[in-house]
Design a protein that fits this description.
The protein contains 20 helices and 13 strands. By secondary structure, it is α/β, with parallel strands linked by helices. The structure holds 6-O-phosphono-beta-D-fructofuranose (F6P).
């Protein structure tokens, strides 16, 4: 029985946490001039510098031992081979199969799923080429110019982040919009100014049952029919990406316009599937394949590299060191790349919805911390927002800096400033500034760790590798914490209560706490007032209309 917190390696790390609590990261470099070379790794065009961490050689060795003595190797093999590791939903976890560029089969319930995956990619290829070339026409014979993805969570964050990150590769005659929030202002803003003749809606929802997405899809359909004519054929304008074909067809989407994927693809791991349709439409199918190839290269690295030379394993172990032994509660993601401004939000769902768990695989409450609060914002903006706390605050916040070396020739001066700012910040966090005689309020204690991830360029391939790196980091932490990183029972309660409260709001139900009841009353009264006002508005406009028709008739 795997008992993490009573293991010898865990206790060794507890001892080391005490022993090294006064260590200074800067001293590690003085003690070992080779530290940077020893604690940096390159995989293709991705370079990881993990030398600015509060990790001595002895701590690193003990962390590797923790991984060795955990179920990691076995769990990793199980995932890639399609075993049912998402035990509470009785599913395999096979986002890696979606980008499997090798010819080895991946068997689920006795069937090799690779032929289905390849068929799905063929459909994606044919469709994206038709739309991008203009061959796919709307009802009035015009090409698609605006694509609107309607989805939330993993059906939004992944494709949205990738499309924004790779905007330089975007089709010059097409624009991409993402509607996710149920807040009507979101869809209203996106739809205003769009032409229904040249707009393609993609309803992206694994279950086709998510309240926000269904309401937004219905509103989009109504907008389309009201701005064309109720009889207009919406076939050319509504596509679905879902595992629930029946519900998609019931919504009115033609069978041939439904891109399927499978239950063994988790929402937050689904951008490699047909959920990535907006990406293929934006950057082209061939570049979408490059994204998959980059992820595949990281998969191979994760599977084959020794644990102490394994990027996802090292990031995961350093994170475990901070979370479980140095009491870090959050992980900051700070891309020094404005094109990656949505990466922190994507990684928030990936990490927090995967490892925000407190019961282990054996059904026992854990007695150690698990997933951190992941947050972040681009640099250099963060320097003018929250870096003050990071430099002089009382909290211990590990940071991942992410950047790409290459910029286009027009922005070289800016890019140089961006990169030198990042290097300066990582250096300042580590060394601080405590000159003799310096007043405390002005001094920076330093000794604040960071990882630096550098891509040669922000290309589809390198972005694919970066995303897969974090997917596997999350996997490694979950395996060591012995939790299920692939279910999300915690989100079901909120979904159920939202439906219930919206139904009960008229009933003045007393089953809720006084606060909820009081708030329901406030909302109910506002809704009733607005309902009366809009009815009054409608009746006066219809009265005016009928007056107009009467006048017209008399004229
Ligand atoms: O947040 C809960 C969740 O189920 C996510 O895991 C998922 O990505 C999102 O809601 C949307 O679900 P669907 O794609 O089924 O609409």
């Amino acid at each position: 029985m795997y008992q993490l917190s009573s293991s010898v390696t865990w206790k060794k790390l507890q001892t080391l946490a005490e022993k090294t609590q006064d260590d200074r990261i800067a001293d590690y470099f003085r003690e070992d001039p080779e530290r940077f070379d020893k604690m940096s790794l390159r995989l293709g065009e991705l370079f990881l510098d993990f030398s600015k961490n509060k990790v001595s050689d002895e701590v690193l060795k003990a962390l590797i031992a923790l991984a060795e003595h955990s179920p990691l190797r076995q769990r990793r093999a199980q995932m890639f081979s399609g075993d049912i590791i998402n035990t509470t939903e009785n599913r395999p976890v096979l986002h890696t199969a979606l980008r499997n560029r090798g010819d080895e089969p991946v068997v689920v319930n006795g069937k090799d799923v690779m032929p289905d995956i390849q068929a799905g990619l063929k459909k994606l290829e044919a469709f994206s080429k038709k739309v991008r070339s203009g061959e796919w026409k709307g009802f009035s014979g015009k090409r698609v110019r605006d694509v609107v993805n309607i989805g939330i969570g993993g059906s939004d964050l992944g494709p949205n982040m990738v499309c924004r990150a790779l905007l330089n590769y975007n089709h010059p005659e097409m624009k991409f919009h993402f509607i996710s929030n149920v807040d009507g202002q979101h869809i209203k803003k996106v739809l205003s100014g769009l032409n229904p003749e040249t707009t393609l809606f993609i309803v992206s929802t694994k279950t086709f049952s998510t309240q926000e997405t269904l309401l937004n899809a219905k509103t989009a359909r109504r907008w389309f029919l009201e701005n064309t004519s109720a009889q207009t054929d919406m076939t050319q304008h509504f596509i679905a990406v879902s595992t629930n074909q029946a519900a998609a067809m019931e919504f009115g989407i033609k069978r041939e316009n439904i891109f399927e994927f499978w239950a063994w693809v988790g929402g937050r791991y689904s951008l490699w599937s047909s959920i990535g349709l907006p990406i293929a439409l934006s950057i082209g199918y061939d570049r979408f394949i490059e994204l998959l190839e980059g992820a595949y290269e990281m998969d191979r690295h994760f599977m084959e590299a020794p644990l102490d030379q394994n990027m996802p394993v090292l990031l995961a172990l350093i994170g475990i060191w901070y979370i479980n032994f140095l009491d870090a509660e959050t992980q900051a993601i700070i891309p020094y790349d404005q094109a990656l401004h949505q990466l922190p939000a994507f990684l928030q769902q990936l990490d927090m919805e995967s490892n925000g768990k407190s019961v282990d695989l054996d059904g026992h409450p854990v007695d150690y911390a698990t997933g951190p609060i992941v947050w972040g914002q681009t640099g250099s903006n963060g320097q003018h927002a929250f870096f003050q706390l990071l430099h002089q605050g009382t909290r211990f916040v590990p940071i991942d800096f992410i950047a790409s070396l290459e910029s286009d020739e027009k922005t070289q001066e800016h890019h140089f400033a961006l990169l030198t700012n990042m290097l300066a910040q990582a250096n300042a966090f580590m060394n601080g500034d405590q000159k003799d005689g310096m007043l405390d309020y002005a001094s920076c204690p330093g000794n604040r760790p960071s990882n630096i991830l550098l891509m040669d360029q922000l290309s589809p391939r390198n972005l694919g590798a970066l995303i897969a790196l974090y997917e596997h980091k999350v996997f490694v932490q979950g395996a060591i914490w012995n939790i299920n990183s692939f279910d999300q029972w915690g989100v079901q309660l909120g979904k159920r209560l939202a439906t219930e409260i919206s139904r009960n709001i008229e009933l003045k139900s007393s089953e809720y706490d006084p606060s909820t009841q009081g708030l329901m009353e406030i909302v109910r009264q506002k809704m009733q007032t607005q309902h009366k006002e809009s009815n009054a508005g409608n009746s006066s406009s219809s009265a005016a209309a009928s007056k107009k028709t009467t006048k017209a008739a008399k004229a």
